[in-house]
Amino acid sequence: MSDAVLQYLRDHRYEQINHLIDFLKIPSISTDKQNKEDVKRAADFVANYVRHIGFEKVEIQPTKGHPLVYAEWMGAGEDAPTVLVYGHYDVQPADPLELWESPPFEPVIRENRLYARGTSDDKGQVFMHLAVFEAFMRTEGKLPINVKLCIEGEEEIGSENLYSILDEKKEQFAADFAIISDSGMVSNDQPTILYGLKGFTGLEFTVHGPKNDLHSGLYGGAVRNPLMAMAHLLASLKNEEEVVTVEGFYDDVEPLLASERILMSEVPVEDYPKTTGVDQTISEKGYTAIEHTMARPTLEINGMFGGYQGEGTKTIIPSKATAKLTCRLVPGQDPETIQNRLIDHLEKHVPAGVQLELKKEPLSAKAYKVDPNHPLIKKAAESYQKGFGKEAVYVRMGGSIPVLEWIDSIYKMPIVLLGFGTPDDRLHSPNESFPLANFDRGLITLVDYYQSVRKEK
Amino acid sequence: MSDAVLQYLRDHRYEQINHLIDFLKIPSISTDKQNKEDVKRAADFVANYVRHIGFEKVEIQPTKGHPLVYAEWMGAGEDAPTVLVYGHYDVQPADPLELWESPPFEPVIRENRLYARGTSDDKGQVFMHLAVFEAFMRTEGKLPINVKLCIEGEEEIGSENLYSILDEKKEQFAADFAIISDSGMVSNDQPTILYGLKGFTGLEFTVHGPKNDLHSGLYGGAVRNPLMAMAHLLASLKNEEEVVTVEGFYDDVEPLLASERILMSEVPVEDYPKTTGVDQTISEKGYTAIEHTMARPTLEINGMFGGYQGEGTKTIIPSKATAKLTCRLVPGQDPETIQNRLIDHLEKHVPAGVQLELKKEPLSAKAYKVDPNHPLIKKAAESYQKGFGKEAVYVRMGGSIPVLEWIDSIYKMPIVLLGFGTPDDRLHSPNESFPLANFDRGLITLVDYYQSVRKEK
C-alpha cells in the first residue's frame, strides 16, 4: 500500500472531515419538493469536489427528477480496469425532528461518531471514495485505475429515473466492475462481504363484503364477515412453521449450497433480543434465522385493517378489510411470477360471500447475488483485513437494492459491495451517525482495494 | 275495543302528533355532555305529560347520570294486573349532520313518514303509549289496568344506572308483566312477535411481537410477524362453514326446537341483497340465515388493525396487531363462560414468538327468550291482528337488550315486546324516521292490548 497516500489521508483528516461536514449540512431530502434546490446544491458539491480533485469529465445530468452526477477519470489507460462507483447524495427526511439530540443538518461529533442525516446513508460513504481519490491525485498525481462516478439524487425515492439513464447511456457507464458503498457490516468493527441481496414484490388486497357496516346482531349469521374472510386468506398463505403455502412459491428457488451454509454459520449472530425485543427467533422449518433472513424467501404482512379501530366496542360486521403484503425473493424467483402466484392463490381461496380487489405493488426487484469466490470479492476481503485487522465474514442480506439488478442485467458486470456502516448507525431514523473509526479504517480499505484491483482486467 | 277511545285518538291525532314533535325537538343525546340539560328537558316532557294525563305518582329520579322518569297509575285496583312499561327518552347522536335531508331535531313529515332523531328509537314508540293512556283517561276516566312507567335516559349509553335502580327498588317497579316498545317488525306492515333476543360478550386482544416495527428485509425470517400470528389466531376461531371452533362454545346452547324452526320458516325473508349489498347469504352449516341470525350464537370480528395503513407500501414487520371480537349468545350460554372459553382458546393457540394481551369487554348480557305460546304473547298477536289486519309472525332477533335480562332475572316477570318500528327507519343513522301509518295502527294495537290483558292476573 502506498504510504504517501495513507500519510496524506492522516495529514488532511481534519480538513477532509470538515468538507464532509459541509456536504452533510445540505438538507438534500429528495422526497420533499421544498428541498429541490438543496438537492441541487448537494449535486453541485459532489461535482465541484471531483472537478477540484482533477476528474476530467464532470457532468450534472438533469433527469425528470433530481440530477445525477457523472464524472470520470480515465487516465490509468486502456490496459487498466475501469470501475463504476455508484452512490447517492440524497437523504431521507429527518422527522420526527424532536427526537434528534442535535439538529439533523448541523453535524456534530460525540464519542467519536459523526451525527447528522446522511452520515452513513450515503453521503459519508460516498465521501470516503472522494477522499481516497483526492489522496491519490494529490500524492501520486493519478488514480490506480480508471474511475467512472455515478452519484444519484433519487435513491431514497426509488431511483425513479436511474434505470432509463443506465439503459440509454450504456457506453458512458460501461465498466469492468462496480463498487457500491451503501451498506453495512454485521457489527461495528467486523468487515463484512455482502455478496447477495433479496428481490422484492408486493400486493395489496381488499376483501369486500356488505355495502355498509352492518349491525352484528341483525346480520351476524347471514353474511360473511370480511375480516374473518381476510384472516382465513392470510392464514392460508403461510403456516405456523413459517413455510409459505402458496403453490409454486418455492419452485424456482436456487437451493442454499452447503458451502454457503458454512459461510453463514460463521457470521456472528445478531443479538436479536436486544435489537428486536423478541426473546425467540422464529424461522422457516429447516433453516436458521440467519439462513432464512439471508437466503430464503419471505412473505410478510406489512399492514392490515378493517372495521372499528377506536376505543371500546362497536358491534358491526365491517364492509371490508385490507391487507398489504410484500415478499423478499431469492435468486431464481421472478417477481412478477411470484406476484401472479399470490394472486392465483388468493383468487382460489377467497370464500363465498365476499369479493376480492387486488392492487399490484408496481415496484419490484430481482434478487442479486455474486459468487463469493469471485477474485474481486476475495480481494475485497483482503483489503477489509488490512483496514480493520480482522477477517471478513460473508453474508447475504434480506434487503433489496434495485440498482444492483439493473447494473447486473444491463452491464453484466460484477458488483462489489464495500459497506462501512454499522448496526448502530440508525439509518432513516433520528440521530443517524457514523463511527469515525470506520471512516479511518474504510479509507485504508479503499486505498488498498483500488491499488490491488489494478491488475484485474 | 272501546270505540270512544279510538274515536278520541282519531279526533286528537293532529294535536298528539304535534306533542310528539315537541318531544322530538329536544336533542336528548345522552352520550354528549353538552346535551345534559336537553336530556333533562326530555325527562321533564315525559313527566309533565303523564302528570297532565292524570298519573298519580310522577317522579324524576336522579341517577349518577341522566334521570329516570317513574310514574304510576294504580286506579284499576288490586284485582287488575299491573304492567311495567319500559322505554327511553334519550337518543343517539345525529352526526354526520350533513347527511340529513332535514335537520335531525326539526321534525318534518315526508311521504307519510315523520323524520327526526328518535322517531322510531324510542321517543316515538314511548309516546304511543302516552297517547293511548291519554285517550283512556280522557274518555273512560281510567286505564284498563294498573300502569307503572319506567322511561330512562341512558339506554343509548348502555343503561349504566338502570340495573342498580331496578335491583334496589324492587317493590316500586314490581308488576305482573312488562311491555317494551323499542323494537321493530320484519317488514313495514307485518306485525311481528319478538320473543327472544341474543346475549352478548366481547373481547379485544393484541398480539405483541418486536418492540418496534422492523425492516422486513433484515428481520423477515427471524421474528414472528404479529399480523400473521393474528390471522392464524382469528382463523382458528371459526371455520369457513361459519362453525365456531372454540372448544365448548356450543356446549350449553339450547337446541333449536323443530316447532321454532317452523315458526322461523314462516318469517318473510329479508331482501338481503337489497339491505346488505351481498348476493349470497352465508350461515352456519346446517342452519338457514334466518335460523342463524335469530337463534344460533355468532362470533364476529368487529375490527382489526396493525402495521402500515397508508397509501402504497411500507416494508415493515409491525410490532403488534389488534382485533376486537364480539359474540351474540343464545339461551343456555353464559357470557362470562364464553368469554373465558375464548380466552382459553387464544392462549392455547397463540404461536411461539409473540405475546398475547387480553382486554375483556366489560359489558355483557344473557340471551332472553319468552315462551311464544305464553297467553300474554298470544294476546299480543291478536291485538297486532286488529291493528294491522294481518297475522303476526314470530321471530327472535340477533340483537341484545340488557334490560330484558335484568327485568327477567330481578322480577321473573314475562316481557312482551310490542315493537312498531320498520326496517326502513334508519335507527342510529341519518334520516331516522317512523311511518305515521304504524303510529295509527300501533295505537289501535295498544288500545286493544291494554283492554284484553285486563283479565290476565
Automatic annotation (TrEMBL), chains A, B:
EC numbers on record: 3.4.13.-
InterPro entries noted in UniProt: Bact_exopeptidase_dim_dom, Cyt/Met_Dipeptidase, Peptidase_M20, Peptidase_M20_dimer
Domain Peptidase M20 dimerisation: 195-352
Coiled coil: none
GO MF term set: dipeptidase activity; metal ion binding
Record keywords, A-Z: Dipeptidase, Hydrolase, Metal-binding, Protease
Pfam families: M20_dimer, Peptidase_M20
Domain of life, per lineage: Bacteria
Biological process according to GO: proteolysis
Gene3D superfamilies associated with the record: 3.30.70.360, Zn peptidases (3.40.630.10)
Protein name in the entry: Dipeptidase
